[in-house]
Amino acid sequence: MSIEEQFLSSAIKRLEDYRLIAEKAIDRLNDEQLNWQPNDTSNSIAIIVKHMHGNMVSRWTNFLTEDGEKVWRKRDEEFEGKHISKEQILQWWTEGWLVCLTSLKSLVPEDLIKTITIRNQPLIVVDAINRQIAHYSYHIGQLIYISKWRLHTEWTSLSIAKKIIPKI
Questions:
Q1: Is residue 160, in this structure, part of any structural domain at all?
Q2: Which of 41, 74, 108, 118 is 20 to 30 Å from 80 by CA-CA measure?
Q3: Could you tell me if residue 92 is inside a domain?
Q4: Using one digit for the tens of pLDDT, what is the confidence trace for 59-85?
Q5: Would you tell me how many other CB atoms lie within 10 Å of the CB of residue 12?
Q6: Is residue 159 predicted with pLDDT exceeding 80?
């Protein structure tokens, strides 16, 4: 396997892992918890998912041939919304990831050195993929933190639980 194929495989695996860990957090929450905001300037999990959906559909639709910031995207509206149902949240989540992963899986090693644009900024494909991995992991970290906060004492680890050292 070439280094380019390894990169693509690794990027897809990393994103799939991030997706699954976030889904574990989302699954534990009800509508009220998914729509809860720590304060007026913070986003709820519902809004984070809505934003990720908008970003994924915009960035990964016609990834190699069109600017990643589509003219039809309404980014500011992604941060608006009152109560959003868990069903709608999961629909956005599934659709966004489908567009993202389908596009990534269609890439071939030669695509990695091509230049694309995001907001008229030229980026080589490798950099654009790394940029999106960082963006999604940032928001998934927020999502998990809010989930942990809302579940408080009912929280259980999504990955490796920390060891509890007994008091002597």
A1: no
A2: 118
A3: yes
A4: 999 999 999 999 999 999 999 988 999
A5: 16
A6: no
Q: In this structure, which amino acid lies at residue 39?
A: N
Number of domains in the chain: 1
Is residue 164 a part of any domain in this protein? no
Q: Running DSSP on this structure, what letter comes out for residue 79?
A: G
Q: Read off the CATH number of the domain in which 105 is found.
A: 1.20.120.450
Containing structural domain, residue 113: 3-154
For the cut 90, the answer to whether the pLDDT of residue 27 exceeds it is yes
Q: How many Å apart are CA 152 and CA 5, to the nearest integer?
A: 41
Q: CA-CA distance, 19 to 52, in Å (whole number)?
A: 11
Rounded Cα distance between 4 and 16, Å, is: 18
